[in-house]
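Quick one, T. Sequence first:
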Amino acid sequence: MKAQRVEMFVCPSATPADTSGLQKLADSGKLKPDTLVALVGKTEGTGAHDDWGRVWADVALRDWTARFLGVPVDEVAKHVIFVLSGGCPGVITPHIAAVTREWVEAPDQPGGAEKRLVVGRAGSDAMAPEEVGRMGQIRKVAEGTKHAMADAGLADPKDVHLVMVKVPGLTTASIKDAESRGKTVVSHDLTFGPEGAGAYANDAAALGVAMALGEVPESSLSDGVVRRNWDLYSEVAMTSSGGEKRHGEVVVFGNSSTSRSALTIGHAVTKDFIDAQGVRNALRAAGLRFKDGLPDEADLDRLVHVFAKSVIPGSDQVRGQRITLLDDADAYQIGKALGGMLVASVTGRTTNYVSGGERNSHQGPPGGNIVAAVVRTEA
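Structure tokens:
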């Protein structure tokens, strides 16, 4: 029987175009053209729809990957999934996490095997601008998520601990294109504000994941519930959007007893911006030991990477006390920075994937945020 062996390598970035860390991994043989599955990371910049830092990184990474694989740039997406989240305020270090997967012979183990990390990838059909933030986008992300699960060899949604999605957002040009064809768009606001197109794109993608995993039934979904009904959400979707995209890209991470990886993944949900216990719960779910309520310092060396959302709640209170974040002109950046600090305060490291900044989201329950951790096993 063939089984997956997944690895993850985190490379800090000196600039948005820095591919030196990936090149070192390639030179050492840790990255091979036939095993590279995805590049997931944080890029410095504004995080807005026209974030040139993210676009610059995307171009540089695709160019490097094309040379590494020996294929034309326009064919890279057939082989490697790219999920880049812009904006690294506070203590979020720009970085790229390279995910590899190879297939190895795996004889049956008596008594079964512990569940270990598997990964699956898929691309969606192209998304027209009039579909962004609406059922068209939801359905295409749901289909992509199902394909990625199948690629990972996962049948039970309970074994899925993280679904990362990058989808198209809206731009001035794409809005003009839609309207020239007599179509409407979900919003003319190109920000990630409460009524911004970026927030709609992210949330439609999250609901697509929820639909695929059975967290939300399709019968409960419509254009009108996006960014309106906060009782509908996914506990494992981390989504972002960009005007440079035309298709959705999906990466599913889960655990399977057929895996022969040395890594595991777990997830949890924080209840608010100051819920360090929620972060610790994610680390514990992934297999870290704890001492006196805190991660064991020695055991933290087994922590490979943390992925987290940092969405601004709709309320102006945290645990009964008023905060002024909702009135702050820089709330979008501050929201990300708060998430980055929360995770770093528990893990003692800054190379964490923290996206967010939008107000309210279908990524996690109202007021809460998703945290997923990848840990190396002791065996």
